[in-house]
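SEQUENCE-TO-STRUCTURE ENTRY
===========================
What this section holds: a protein sequence and its matching fold, both as plain text.
Tokens: labelled as protein backbone structure tokens, with as many entries as the chain has residues.
Question of interest: how does this chain fold, as expressed in backbone structure tokens?
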Amino acid sequence: MPSNFDVSGLVDAIGDAVVISDREGLIVVWNPAAERIFGFSEAEALGQSLDLITPDRHRRRHWDGYHKSMSTGTTKYGADVLKVPALHKDGHQLSIAFTVGMLRGDDGDVTGIAAIIRDETARWEEERRLRRRVSDLEAELKPASV
């Protein structure tokens, strides 16, 4: 990397949300894209539990997996893109896609997880609309029973 390349502003500059949480699941990094996607300011999000953006019905599964990742130091998802519902500050549901990476201290112990998150709500709604349209068209083309 060139010596004049400064990555210090990278987290703030990228268009995807960067959310980093510690071993307990408390938010320690919340970039401007996270503010835009989820509606919470950095001041509102820092120090809060990931429950802030996790729908109630998904919390148990989320925390089971989170605690397992913290204890084993690995995630079963690797580099897979995960697609899950999330919550906006105003209460409406989002569809997000994200990848996660385990963070480690100098001693190699897990210190938290970094998630790179994209809002897929508009794309998901468009796909759902198109699936309904295809279904409607197929029903129209099906010969009527006699």
Remarks:
- Helices lie at 10-13, 32-38, 42-45, 59-72, 121-141.
- Strands lie at 17-22, 27-30, 82-87, 93-104, 110-119.
- The two ends are 72 Å apart (CA to CA).
